[in-house]
Every structure is written in C-alpha cells, then in structure tokens.
C-alpha cells in the first residue's frame, strides 16, 4: 500500500480522482496529515465511507516514542522513535532565542563511517521515506506543544545518500498547505558527496547547505571520514564553488574540533586559504565523545585560538553552543544505546 504522508497534494488529487472523489478532498486530507493525526478516523470532515476506503488503500505512518530525554540544563529534548517496521531513529528539539529548532534523521543508520560519529557504527539499515522524515517534525510538535520554526537535517544518516526522499520531504515540509516551514529556515548537512551537491544546486532550493568538512587536508580528512577517498578536499571544494555560483547561497562549513587531530594552527591556516575569496561561514563544533572512537575533544583554549586564527585571516567563525550536555544529544548515541539494550535483553 502507498504511504500517504509522502504524497504531494497533486498526487493526492490524482489518487482521489481514481477513487471517484473531488479534488478539494486532497487539501482537506493533506491538512489533517500535517496536523499529525494517528488514524483516518480522526479526519472528521470526511465521510465514514471515504475514511474506510483511505484506510484500505493507504498506510498512515505513526512513530512511537521509545525514549524521551529532557535536559535539565537547557530544555533540549532528545527523542528516540520506533517506526512501523521496528527500526528506531533519533530527533532533537532545541530552544533558541529565534524559536524552536529540530534536528532530524534521514536514514536508519548510516554508511558514511565517520570515525567521530555513533550513527554509522552499525552501518546503514535503510532509507527513511519522505513521510517518515516529516513525521519527526509533526510528532515533535505534537508531543511538545511547540511550533517548529527551523529544521536541520543533521541527525542520523547522510541526506544526500537518500536524495530523492529528502528532496520530496523538503517540498512537503515547505508546502503552504501543510507545515509551511520556509526553505530559508532549513539546513541540510552533508559529509561531502560532491556530485550530489552539484545535483542539488540544480534544484534551485532556498535551503542552507552545511558541508561537514572537519579537516582541510586529505590525509587528516581521509583518516576520519572515508567519504574523502571518493571525494577528496579539492573535488569537494570545486562542488561547493559550483553550488554557490549556481544558487548564490552562502555555504556553512562544519568543522569538528578533535584534540591534536583537527585543531592545529596550520590547519586553521590551510582552512582559511581554502575558503579565501568565497562567502562562507565556519561552525566550530566541540567534539562529542563516542566510546568506540579514540578521538577526544579539543581544549577550550585551543578552540579559541583556532577561531582567532581563522578570523585573523578574514574567515567568519563561530563556536557551536553545546546543547543538552546532560543527555544523549549527540547524533546516534541514543539509538545505539537502545540497540545494545535490545541485544542484551535478547541474550537473556
């Protein structure tokens, strides 16, 4: 059966026409879906017969909360959702002065294998559908009672490895008849799949592209990000130049600060040289420790020196504020803990 929440209004109209229904019903159903209804029976302005036929023809996805951690420090909320096939994904709800931001996952697991990230330790299980990604937004809003104003696709998974479903999600979530979150309030983070970055440029979206660079040289980057073997730094930067020239949208570069690995001054100098002459912003990210990784976070004074070195060379750089320090807010940690608990229960 078709997953109804992944359909656009036009696709809904066509499906309803096949069922002998009038086009205006598509707008009604679309609105209900984006309010996070959990059954077709909740669609009270539809006839009982139509609700029954919808249930026979379509799947309505409803994720279940497995874990919900709330930070006592800053109110950040970490969710672990169980999907209809039993797989689990994570989302995070964060409070800022400008509103409520959410970080969502795009895959169950990840195949990128970044050494500092817990998301890929068990590899890729499957892609999320557009509707399943949308569910993360809808059900965080429903659970928290707060309207989401900003989205970052920076949770579990590589968004550009799930290109078609992520693109469909971007159109769904920004649709005026639905959640209607403007694309300028959406950031997509990628580990650097260069050809997909160039393809994305052609979509002419108004989103912010965030590139997880994390090292300015091939030797270091390849040692922590296997994707660099396929798309070395020079190839990645060429794709980024193309993206900016095509869209006019400034790129944000994510840079993880790992002690004695990515935080050396010569790397700040090389990074500044890489970005010279292009509108860019560098987001320095204090490393979240992962038990299975040997990497450790840079000392605060080293982060400050690195930031100053960039700014002295004309590069705008900020240090990301760490949210939810008392919960498993880093990507992949909560799901991995749940997998470990489930495995332990099964062994008993």
TrEMBL record:
Protein name stated in the entry: Probable dual-specificity RNA methyltransferase RlmN
Cofactor(s) in the UniProt record: [4Fe-4S] cluster
PROSITE patterns for this protein: RADICAL_SAM
Protein family according to the UniProt entry: Belongs to the radical SAM superfamily. RlmN family.
Annotated keywords: 4Fe-4S, Cytoplasm, Disulfide bond, Iron, Iron-sulfur, Metal-binding, Methyltransferase, rRNA processing, S-adenosyl-L-methionine, Transferase, tRNA processing
Known role: Specifically methylates position 2 of adenine 2503 in 23S rRNA and position 2 of adenine 37 in tRNAs.
Radical SAM core domain boundaries: 96-326
Sequence positions that bind S-adenosyl-L-methionine: 157-158, 189, 212-214, 288
Additional remark text: Reaction proceeds by a ping-pong mechanism involving intermediate methylation of a conserved cysteine residue.
The keyword Membrane belongs to this UniProt entry's keyword annotation: no
PANTHER family in the cross-refs: 23S RRNA METHYLTRANSFERASE (PTHR30544), RADICAL SAM CORE DOMAIN-CONTAINING PROTEIN (PTHR30544:SF5)
Any Gene Ontology biological process: rRNA base methylation
Residues that, per the record, bind [4Fe-4S] cluster: 110, 114, 117
